[in-house]
């Protein structure tokens, strides 16, 4: 069985410039993900898909491979993750290399641990899912969400306005960290999330989406807190 870790890290991030290699508590943020993938022992190759020579150099410094650079078609603002993964798998196939499973690991997900990757892979193979990824529970019941229209509030689901929180079904969202998937299933559908996808629940402290400067500061705070708890 052969597994590939793919870390997509283009150079043109807009909201946080050079986001994928920006220092996170003193180390390029991508280095945490590379190190986790290598430590997991799950992968025959840990590669970074990038169009940027500086990112490539830093990735190599921390142990990742850069067998080829990303093309201009998949380096733009509108390229999807699926398109990037398809390109990577095709490039490897042209070299005569095929993989049973692959994991798309986002470069700004420093909270991912080798243990979490192993848990995802076990779930993927044992339950024969197409894809497995981390999910987090919404901190407030989504059934009691409201909309605002000219400062007026309205229930999305008025039938639950008085329902006790503990009586409502928990809801979850994608934690935005990684997708561990069957290469064969992905090649057939060209989709990461299918009707046969599975989720593994992680705590609210075990991930943080980073889209702006405040997110970055909160993520560093949470990471230090989690690190001290270990």
How are the secondary structure elements laid out?
Layout: E1 3-8, E2 23-24, E3 27-28, H1 29-40, E4 45-49, H2 53-61, H3 81-94, E5 101-105, H4 114-126, E6 131-137, E7 146-149, E8 152-155, E9 172-174, E10 178-182, H5 183-189, E11 197-201, H6 213-229
Parallel strand pairs: 1-4, 1-5, 6-11
Antiparallel strand pairs: 2-3, 5-10, 6-9, 6-10, 7-8
Question: Can you walk me through this structure?
Answer:
It is a single chain. Helices cover 31% and strands 21% of the residues. By secondary structure, the protein is α/β, with parallel strands linked by helices. The chain has a single domain, classed as Spore Coat Polysaccharide Biosynthesis Protein SpsA, Chain A (Alpha-Beta Complex), CATH 3.90.550. Strands 1, 4, 5, 6, 9, 10 and 11 form a seven-stranded mixed sheet that branches. The protein has a two-stranded antiparallel ribbon with strand order 2-3. A hairpin with a 2-residue loop joins β7 and β8. The longest helix has 17 residues.
Q: What fraction strand?
A: 15-25%
> How many domains would you count in the coordinates?
1
CATH topology: Spore Coat Polysaccharide Biosynthesis Protein SpsA, Chain A
Number of strands: 11
Give the uncertain stretches in residue-range form: none
CATH homologous superfamily, by name? Spore Coat Polysaccharide Biosynthesis Protein SpsA, Chain A
Gross morphology: globular
Share of residues in helices: 25-40%
CATH class: Alpha Beta
Briefly note the structural class of the backbone.
alpha/beta
First and last CA, distance = 32 Å
CATH architecture title: Alpha-Beta Complex
Mean pLDDT reading: 94
**Number of helices in the DSSP assignment:** 6
Specify Rg, calculated over alpha carbons.
Answer: 19 Å
Q: What profile does the largest beta sheet have?
A: 7 strands, mixed
Q: Name the helix and strand elements from N-terminus to C-terminus, one letter apiece.
A: EEEHEHHEHEEEEEHEH
